[in-house]
Design a protein that fits this description.
The chain has 258 residues and is of the alpha/beta class. It has 11 helices and 11 strands. Helix content is 35%, strand content 26%. The strands form 2 sheets. The chain has a 7-stranded mixed sheet, sandwiched between helices. The protein has a 4-stranded mixed sheet with strand order 2-1-3-4. InterPro entries: DICT_dom (IPR019278).
Length: 258
């Protein structure tokens, strides 16, 4: 068994994005289309009555509006930023707040090309990961599990080190996973529990899971999980979700198998 089976079994949902009453340059539509070029997320634009500013609408399979966010918020959080903002720490936990149309993409089964094939596609995974880390930090309870492929990334990336030091100092039971490339001791010094291994799950998986106390109970809070696996071509396949069953199944597997 491996984490890949959870991705293979996940069916996913249909979503599309609409730029409503766009007055901004064509460049913004092009950037949005590029960000989702490999996804099952269509991008279109339209004139929508009642929308007085440039907005992005998230539509379901029957074209019902599931969420709406200002185009400026989508641009600043995704289109006009890059992974360096998270790696260097210029985007801190306090500043992370993804627009509703981005968090509303939960349940979509995505396919994202990594560097050097794409400089932007993987940013969605990075931004959602930081949002989950923020949720764990704000709740200050429960468990948090995250994989890094190489443990050195936790301590060598200034922004990542800062986030996991804050989580390590919090009341969140924080666990990190990856191949030990000589950095396990430094990672442990952050106050987190380190799990090292060399299997495919350690080398080629990307998961960030926050499980609040009592998650899974009828009146309990929702967990949130991101899971992606990398194939031989450097393409990440996965999903993120707040649905109880898939999120808890992934968390249970990581807790008992890694």
């Amino acid at each position: 068994m491996s984490l890949e089976r959870f991705v293979d079994a996940y069916e996913g949902v249909e979503r599309s994005l609409v730029l409503a009453n766009r007055r901004q340059p064509e460049q913004l539509r092009s950037m949005l289309e590029t960000a989702f070029a490999e996804q099952s997320v269509a991008v279109d634009d339209a004139i929508v009555d009642g929308e007085e500013e440039d907005m992005v609408l998230l539509l379901g399979p029957d074209e019902e509006v599931l969420a709406r966010s200002p185009l400026s918020a989508v641009a600043s959080s995704l289109l006009f930023t890059n992974s360096d903002a998270f790696i260097t720490g210029s985007t801190d936990l306090d500043a992370v707040d993804l627009p509703d149309v981005i968090t509303g993409l939960e349940g979509v089964k995505f396919r994202l090309r990594g560097y050097p094939r794409s400089h932007k596609e993987k940013l969605l995974l990075i931004a959602v990961s930081r949002q989950i880390e923020r949720s764990a930090w704000l709740r200050d309870a429960g468990t948090h599990r995250a994989s890094f492929q190489q443990l050195s990334r936790i301590v060598d990336e200034q922004g990542t080190e800062r986030v996991y030091r804050r989580l390590g100092e919090s009341a969140v039971d924080t666990h990190v996973y990856g191949v030990d490339d000589g950095s396990a001791e430094r990672a442990s010094a952050l106050g987190v529990t380190v799990h090292a291994g060399t299997s495919t799950d350690y080398r080629d998986s990307w998961f960030v899971i926050h499980r609040p106390p009592e998650a899974g109970e009828p009146s309990g809070p929702d967990p949130i999980a991101l899971l992606a696996v990398q194939d031989e071509e450097g393409v990440w396949h996965g999903f993120f979700t707040t649905e109880q069953e898939p999120a808890i199944r992934v968390d249970d597997y990581v807790r008992t198998a890694l």
